[in-house]
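Tutorial handout. Part one gives the primary structure; part two gives the three-dimensional structure as tokens.
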Amino acid sequence: MELSELPAGKKIVLFDGVCNLCNSSVRYIINRDKKDVFRFAALQSDIGQKILRHIGADEKYTDSIVLYEPGQAYYYKSSAAIEIAKHLGSIHSIGIIFKLIPSFLRNPIYDYVARNRYKWYGKTDECAIPTPRLQKKFLS
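Part two.
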């Protein structure tokens, strides 16, 4: 897939495809994405790498989650999580309140979890393959 082929009007969640916590988070988002806002790609995938190069993202900020809104913006770390929560609606929208906390205070907490995610939640040897039902949600 090329960047010009990204689905129009969709926000792209790039995630660590071998991280169990990240994979659980993706399933959580999919189950609550009632407006079909998101598409997903592993950071390790070809399209994930193309997007990261395209936006010029620094690797030290993009090891666990990036939200890319084609032609508009990209978010990483806690800002990505807040933006995703905002689009899930209902009680998740309250997560926007965390924007009141500056990222230099939010991100150290995010970084602590990110550094320990493999130890706490484990990791797989390869990216998970989505079920046929969920295939349309993933970019390849």
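Part three, for discussion. The longest strand covers residues 11-15. The mean pLDDT is 87.
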